[in-house]
Amino acid sequence: MTPQETAEKLGITFAKQEPGYLNLCIRTGNLLMSSGHVSDLKGKVGAGVSVEEAYQAARDCVIKILKSVHNTHGTLNGLRVIKLLGCVNSTLEFHEQHLVINGASDLLHEIYGKSGDGYHARSALGFAQLPTNAAVEVEAIFEVKS
């Protein structure tokens, strides 16, 4: 099954996106670079937001990224995931940001394979605050394979 087919089987739909204030995904050379996509979940992990809720929010961020990538590239096929940056709105005491961002990585592994095109570099960082009080923000870099 192709990445596009896998994503659709998971229930991800792809509608045309209207341009906004910023470019949600831009191509430069053979790279697709996404803007940060924030979760709909609001709040601070470690103070009212659980790891499980934030894990799902990170997964939802990647769904938004995939929609932006699809809008730019026309398909999810022919891509290799290069890098993820995961930002977690968390308390100073919280230290499991990596478990939250696993929600993003796990979805990309499911679509692109864990040992193949989905095997990526990643950073998972804690932040004192994120825009709109989002619990999670994720950005990604994809390579367009020739």
Question: Which descriptors would you attach to this protein?
Answer:
single chain; two-stranded parallel sheet; about 35% helix; about 150 residues; 8 strands
What's the helix-strand series? HEEEEEHEHEE
Question: Whole-number average pLDDT?
Answer: 97
Strand content: 25-35%
State the end-to-end CA separation. 19 Å
The largest β sheet comes out as:
6 strands, mixed
Number-wise, the strands total 8
Uncertain regions: pLDDT < 50 for 5+ in a row?
A: none
The helix-and-strand class reads alpha/beta
Helicity range = 25-40%
What characteristic shape results from the CA principal axes?
globular
> How many distinct helices?
3
Q: What's the quaternary structure here? A: single chain
User: What Rg, in angstroms, do the CA atoms define?
Assistant: 15 Å
Brief rundown of the structure:
With about 150 residues, this protein is of the alpha/beta class. The protein has helices spanning about 5-10, 50-75, 95-115, and strands at about 25-30, 30-35, 35-40, 45, 50, 80-90, 120-125, 135-145.
Explain what you see.
- The structure is a single chain.
- The chain is of the alpha/beta class.
- It contains 3 helices and 8 strands, in the order αβββββαβαββ.
- The chain has helices spanning 3-9, 51-73, 97-117, and strands spanning 25-28, 31-34, 37-38, 44-45, 48-49, 79-89, 121-127, 136-144.
- Helix 2 crosses helix 3 (97-117).
- The protein is globular, with a radius of gyration of 15 Å.
- The mean pLDDT is 97.
